[in-house]
Amino acid sequence: MAKDFRIGHGFDVHRFRRGRKLMLGGVEIPHTRGLYGHSDADAVLHALINALLGAMAEGDIGSHFPDTDPSLKGIASSKMLAEVLRTMRRKRFKLVNVDITLVAQAPKLAPHYLTMRKSVAGLCNVRVDRISIKATTTERLGWVGAGKGMAATALVLLAR
Ligand code: MG
Question: How far away, in angstroms, is 3 Cα from ligand 1 center?
Fold first, then answer.
């Protein structure tokens, strides 16, 4: 029988705030500001979680992990990802590959691509060649270009 493939897309945005750590892909990236949110505001993992949930037609991150839940305040996004991956395995899906694009004016992210990829690969328990992370600026246009915040998109392919 043909394999059952499922594609998923995720998108996430957070604003920058001083005094916060910049967490991306489960690692801290050195910067003058971090992303603000109820959790650790890891835009890479949030986009990935939304893509995984999308591939399984299981709703979105907000319905699984509401930002009104005080027990989730400051939670590491890696814990939310682990829970979604448990759902994925329970449904007998395997993660084929992930392609993430960060949209940010600063900091420069290319020097951190491999660190983030290794971290996400470790969290997902797959080889690093199945995890792509790259970034673009918006040529200083719009709120991203003005440095107000950062966006991330993720595409995933699942198979069973
Ligand atoms: Mg988010």
Answer: 32
